[in-house]
Prior knowledge:
2 copies of one chain form a homodimer. By secondary structure, chain A is α/β, with parallel strands linked by helices. Helices cover 41% and strands 14% of the residues of chain A. In chain A, the strands form 4 sheets. The first copy, chain A, has an 8-stranded mixed sheet, with helices on both faces. Chain A has a 4-stranded antiparallel sheet with strand order 12-13-16-15. In chain A, strands 1-2 form a two-stranded antiparallel ribbon. The model of chain A has no long low-confidence stretch (mean pLDDT 94).
Amino acid sequence: xxxxxxxxxxxxxxxxxxxxxxxxxxxxxxxxxxxxxxxxxxxxxxxxxxxxxxxxxxxxxxxxxxxxxxxxxxxxxxxxxxxxxxxxxxxxxxxxxxxxxxxxxxxxxxxxxxxxxxxxxxxxxxxxxxxxxxxxxxxxxxxxxxxxxxxxxxxxxxxxxxxxxxxxxxxxxxxxxxxxxxxxxxxxxxxxxxxxxxxxxxxxxxxxxxxxxxxxxxxxxxxxxxxxxxxxxxxxxxxxxxxxxxxxxxxxxxxxxxxxxxxxxxxxxxxxxxxxxxxxxxxxxxxxxxxxxxxxxxxxxxxxxxxxxxxxxxxxxxxxxxxxxxxxxxxxxxxxxxxxxxxxxxxxxxxxxxxxxxxxxxxxxxxxxxxxxxxxxxxxxxxxxxxxxxxxxxxxxxxxxxxxxxxxxxxxxxxxxxxxxxxxxxxxxxxxxxxxxxxxxxxxxxxxxxxxxxxxxxxxxxxxxxxxxxxxx
Amino acid sequence: xxxxxxxxxxxxxxxxxxxxxxxxxxxxxxxxxxxxxxxxxxxxxxxxxxxxxxxxxxxxxxxxxxxxxxxxxxxxxxxxxxxxxxxxxxxxxxxxxxxxxxxxxxxxxxxxxxxxxxxxxxxxxxxxxxxxxxxxxxxxxxxxxxxxxxxxxxxxxxxxxxxxxxxxxxxxxxxxxxxxxxxxxxxxxxxxxxxxxxxxxxxxxxxxxxxxxxxxxxxxxxxxxxxxxxxxxxxxxxxxxxxxxxxxxxxxxxxxxxxxxxxxxxxxxxxxxxxxxxxxxxxxxxxxxxxxxxxxxxxxxxxxxxxxxxxxxxxxxxxxxxxxxxxxxxxxxxxxxxxxxxxxxxxxxxxxxxxxxxxxxxxxxxxxxxxxxxxxxxxxxxxxxxxxxxxxxxxxxxxxxxxxxxxxxxxxxxxxxxxxxxxxxxxxxxxxxxxxxxxxxxxxxxxxxxxxxxxxxxxxxxxxxxxxxxxxx
Lengths: 473, 473
């Protein structure tokens, strides 16, 4: 990258982060040159780049100004799913996306994989390989059915910072959060029964509902603060809901954090109707707020909350280390976990336990929080630049995915097909519903590995959009 | 071990393996001394040890003779389980045994873990830690939903030697055989439906039946050649059986290999009634016969057989690498596998794939076959020496577990409790039934890690037996 490009990138970031307000005057060419120790022509070249990108405007005789503020991006409004229990479909769409993993692509927006190239992960990887080298026998035997006791002690410490009071024996280690959710669903509901879920909601949980022969009742959900408690109460008055499955802290796909009072209201409602809550907290530790928001489980004084999580979003999904704090369902959960896949491999548990104990986990989280928050801000700005004004976007308060609602005339499935030909992989919205809603929506991974290629990909998407209108049906 | 002890051990083995027939004359002291290049007193000392153990008798002026043959041990007769579909119980017993894993003990007969100390496993372990060192990123990402393609290619080769014609895309890698069985049960039967199983049968499969809300119909099973086809037909005439779950090649717990014609008859019966077969082949590769017996799947010309296996018995359970060749159920199996635990960790798959490709797997199997066969023979002989004459024992044709039927007046559960106090861990028989049958039976792991301590443990068990009679109920 040449000097002027570097300078342009830096100025652009400062504008996007709001250091220079819209319509405000930028430093003069002479001033910037002396500030950055570069030539006048370097500054002029940098300003020309920003002008071309419509981030700044040049006014003759007056200098350079930040462009006028465009309308802020709106958030999606509260969703309006069908108000009755439904069978889950859309597996074909999920499968197609899963089979896309690992396919060479220019830009992968579809997956929910964290940044795994950070140097803060190095101590963990070193520990893992040393365990494989020096204690291979530990990796060959069956371990404890509830998981390694040392890791469970660390889980007890970690969850304390989310407001929970749990002991090592209160945890069951699982093969990722997917197994955790699947086991919990089977533990709390019998075939044919109804589970209330957020809408949109995580497709892996929806598909687990399908496989357990349960029905999904999608509850209207707000992109700012989550599942509507009023709508949930109405639904529960009308239908024999057996459990609520929610991702209240850094939701997938929307990224919101449900406010604490609302979490409490949700818990009380579950208590009133005497049903279970499955709380998916997989992104909870990478909420941007620190200390992290408290869980629903933190209110749980009668063991009805099954808290599920994993290290797939905070460290790496390939380790397949997740866990459940199943409350009063521990015996049933242990049974179903055992028949599902027996014990979990020991060495990743040992390595992660050590990583937490020695402080590596907190250091890594701290780096990721900063990284993802910055990436979110840049992504939101890029979306504002490239997408139609009526586009709505959720405002993630943690994690690395966001939810986009295109104007209703667009077909995200068509867009995904076209984009794939250009090497850009998308996750269309309908997978995040039991019944194929959200066909005009998309979930984006916004981790900013290479901003130039992300920008180019978003520009390409915006160019493809006009051809991707819904066919009149 | 001193010279005379070495010689005694060698002679004992030769007697047990039948090189010297019962009541036949043994070589003279002088002859043996010259043959083995040891002193006369060493031979005399060795013969004295064998005499004390009642394996040989000294006849004055005539020399040493092998002891008269004792009555051969009888095999268990065909089982007589209740002839109706039952809910599976006994989880508490299974859990208690699982929680015993890893507890310090003098002698562990209860688990079904293979010998993992063999030097033939070294290349695999080396490859695993090298992958962890040099390709950690491969271990962090999500892999292919069906498992690593390279491993699946090797599975295609492996199963060819069991008579199958399968391509890499015909496999779905799972988290051990437990996940394979659990996924297959859910793929072929709906809650409330009936699955026919062997009796006795593997407790992990029984518990998976319970968790999937299915009913088990235990079919009379012969310790020599497996499930009775006649009894199965009768049962299927009477009940709407949805699938048959069998372990026909090196059965767990009995160790028999179902003859090929009988496998064919079983397959044809499934075809006639148009139902699925879940074939658990987890011990198939360590049948003592080489080349290994063909699978039921080898007859499968219409995709109704779901072949399940893993490397837990051939390599080590801790790797948690199993697989399914699901035939016509592939789509459903892929779905349920995905919701159950998402993808499997990649590095163990890469390491095992390489181990097979480079010939290490075959070398290891060959060593294990010899090792286990010899251990079986010694175990059978020890059982004959220590247990009451009416004790019946299965004759494993592979693997490393056998099934013992004590005279009916004994209570194996009581025996297990007493034995535990002496540091000897047992697997009582009732777990191998849906409904608590086989209370007078035990499954033994017969791997001979330390023959002296195994012998001592068996002697202790025989001494405890008289106190372990069934209470009159």
